[in-house]
Amino acid sequence: MKPVVISGTGLFTPPYSISNDELVTAFNAYVELHNRENAAAIAAGEVTALEPSSSGFIEKASGIKSRYVMEKEGILDPSRMTSRIAERGDDELSLQAEMCVAAAREALERAGRVAADIDMVLVAASNMQRAYPAMAVEVQEALGIEGFGFDMNVACSSATFGIQTAMAAVQTGQARAVLVLNPEITSGHLNFRDRDSHFIFGDACTAIVIEAADTAVSEHQFEILDSKLKTKFSNNIRNNFGFMNRFDEAGAGKADKLFRQQGRKVFKEVCPMAAEMIRATVENAGLQIPQVSRYWLHQANLNMNLLIARTLLGRDAEPNEAPVILDTYANTSSAGSIIAFHKYQDDLPAGANGVICSFGAGYSIGCVVVRKK
Ligand SMILES: CC(C)(COP(=O)(O)OP(=O)(O)OC[C@H]1O[C@@H](n2cnc3c(N)ncnc32)[C@H](O)[C@@H]1OP(=O)(O)O)[C@@H](O)C(=O)NCCC(=O)NCCS
Questions:
Q1: Fewer C-beta neighbours within 10 Å, C or N terminus of the chain?
Q2: How far away, in angstroms, is 263 Cα from ligand 1 center?
Q3: 369 contacts 281 by C-beta, under 8 angstroms
Q4: Of 173, 185, 94, 181, whose CA–CA distance to 145 is shortest?
Q5: Does any ligand 1 atom lie closer than 6 A to the CB of residue 362?
Q6: What is the pTM of this model?
Q7: Residue 259: what pLDDT?
């Protein structure tokens, strides 16, 4: 098959960071308010009292210390607890497209490419800010790219599924080069009033240029040796938000229209699946685990990543073998493994092998084995 490379990556980091302490202070103020307002009903056993959150728990259970968001004040307002971002007019660039354009510019520059070199734009993310027109088509217009674009959603695995889709388009000659974008505004689907998950997510956008190896000009090339995707239906991570919500008023505003999960089950079920997929994809590429220098794993939970690395290596990973970015970014859904890849790739020598692996709702798992050129 025609060799294909990742020739450039880009990252847009939102302007605001929220520490665990800031988030917990807002959450606990909300809890106090709720418990005070419902004191009589709580005393009568009609309403359950809410319990406070703690920074210590968050860091220990997840490894997360802070997260970036597109707007901070609304999230930290105990009477609101969601971002306050004004709607834009139809003639303005939408917020998600704006993030894409910023990340895309860096990816194109690192790839040594301009808009005219790209034939296809894929916006692959957990949430699109509108139903249509596709975000990808707006981004295409904003960057001045000819050809075509479309959106895809495989939750946290959207980027790796996007990479394989892009690779196939290059191999079949449908596109000379593809721009894959992962604009994750996860603060939009996060229930900041849910103690079990209010700390999990952060916002970010990543960009990836994928093109034929024989014509690539970049100094930052990684050949894609193999990729493997897997999905297996599970309700353990689910969000029922959708265009049919208005058909049933009884469901309006309910917590199931935001992210929710059975965290323990996800942890237990996904870690072995991801480790198994990584091993299979590495072997399919003609390699063995000891020949892999770096794992750019999905950044949801530090303990998950430590377990996956230990399962593969038979020992704890060195920090540079499985770089961590979730401490400052939290879970940025599909962008997470690509942020790790973007930030921790330039030190690798030519010939070094690595694995990008994402996992999440679906369940969905995507593995991409790459070699530095
Ligand atoms: C979400 C996750 C961090 C929770 O960690 P956990 O150790 O499983 O925590 P649990 O929900 O079992 O709760 C453990 C205890 O902490 C308490 N707790 C939960 N949230 C808390 C909070 N915010 N602050 C303080 N305590 C909290 C619980 O009440 C429970 O107390 P108990 O033992 O007295 O009953 C973890 O399950 C996880 O990361 N799972 C992976 C899933 C994931 O990240 N998915 C994203 C998509 S891939």
A1: N
A2: 7
A3: yes
A4: 181
A5: no
A6: 0.97
A7: 97
Instruction: Give tens-digit pLDDT for 211-240.
Output: 999 999 999 999 999 999 999 999 999 999
39 phi/psi in degrees, rounded to 5: -55, -45
Is 226 inside any structural domain? yes
Domain annotation covers residue 265 = yes
Identity of residue 362: G
- Of 59, 261, 302, the one to substitute when testing ligand 1's pocket (max ligand atoms within 8 A of C-beta) is 261
CA separation, residue 352 to residues 119, 287, 322, 346, 349 (Å): 29, 12, 14, 11, 6
Answer whether residue 349 is part of any domain. yes
Q: What is the CATH number of the domain that holds 234?
A: 3.40.47.10
pLDDT at 1: 84
Structural domain for 303, as ranges: 222-372
What is the reported pLDDT for 327?
Answer: 98
Count of structural domains, the chain: 1
Whether 156 sits among the annotated catalytic residues: the reply is: yes
Per-residue confidence (pLDDT) for residue 146, from 0 to 100: 97
Residue 127 is assigned to a structural domain of this protein? no
- Per DSSP, the residues of 54-77 read -HHHHHHHH---EEEES--HHHH-
Given 100, 156, 271, 357, the catalytic residue: 156
Gap between the Cα atoms of 61 and 24, Å rounded: 14
